[in-house]
Amino acid sequence: MMFLQILFTFSFLFSSSNALDFCVGDLNTPQGPAGYSCKNPEAVIVDDFIFSGLHVAGNTSNLTNSVATPVFSTQFPGFNGLGISLARLDMAIGGWVPMHTHPGASELFVVMQGTIRAGFISSTNKVYIKTLEEGDVMVFPQDLMHFQFNVGKSPALAFASFSKASTDIYIMDNAWFANDLPVDILQKTTFLDPDQIKKLKGVFGGTY
Ligand SMILES: *[C@@H]1O[C@H](CO)[C@@H](O)[C@H](O)[C@H]1NC(C)=O
Ligand SMILES: *[C@@H]1O[C@H](CO)[C@@H](O)[C@H](O)[C@H]1NC(C)=O
Predict the structure, then answer these.
(1) Which PANTHER family match (predicted)?
(2) What does the pLDDT look like over 43-86, one tens digit per residue?
């Protein structure tokens, strides 16, 4: 009798933990470091696990002639809590993604079309760089600065997946030049002339 009772208690515990198979994000809740709060599991439907539209190329007419279309937990709440996400990267001829990092997330980069020169810099300042062709996969280890250039004669397409459900794209140029960081501090930290710093602030929308 006692044994049956214990068995019953255990099966109850296990069946309630099964309800944590997923945590579809409730976009009405604030997004914290652990993501969104879970949508009520009773209200979760199959479409919460499906995202459509990644066949559509992004508009590459911007400063870098490239555009990333993110599918992070904000665009696709089904990723919430699972530690994975995805982006489509379109690069026009000559386009590039400037030096950037994804804090806490490694990136798996798959070239679908074109020729992309990509690389990263380790924390001992060693450069790992390679020209990738269609079907090549490169991994950018978490937190390291990396970049991609379309060096081919046609537009390039790649998909990137990340080891976080929502990934910051922390672009070095923007961190330095797209804000009101004082010119004298930038002069000391970058070793650039004040005129060059003001010019770069103009390019990236910063103020001084
Ligand atoms: C792409 O963006 C540019 C600049 O914002 C805009 O002028 C152009 O119409 C857009 N092209 C398409 C196809 O949406
Ligand atoms: C243009 O490129 C910049 C730098 O890569 C990126 O931050 C921005 O989102 C892009 N613009 C658009 C409209 O996608």
Answers:
(1) GERMIN-LIKE PROTEIN SUBFAMILY 3 MEMBER 3
(2) 999 999 999 999 999 999 999 999 999 999 999 999 999 999 99
Residue nearest to atom 14 of ligand 1 (CA): 59
Angle at the Cα of 91 from the Cα atoms of 102 and 70, rounded to 5 degrees: 40
Average pLDDT over residues 12-26: 69
Ligand number nearest CA of 57 is 1
Give the ligand with the smallest distance to the CA of 65: 2
Note the pLDDT of residue 19.
59
pTM of the model: 0.86
Give the confidence band of 20 by pLDDT, cuts at 50, 70, 90. Answer: confident
How would DSSP label each residue in 1-28?
A: -HHHHHHHHHHHHHHHHHTTS---B-TT
- pLDDT for res 12: 44
Question: Do 98 and 172 meet the contact criterion of CB atoms below 8 Å apart?
Answer: yes
Q: How many whole angstroms from 64 Cα to the centroid of ligand 2?
A: 7
* Closest residue to atom 2 of ligand 1, CA basis: 61
Domain ranges of the chain: 46-168, 175-204
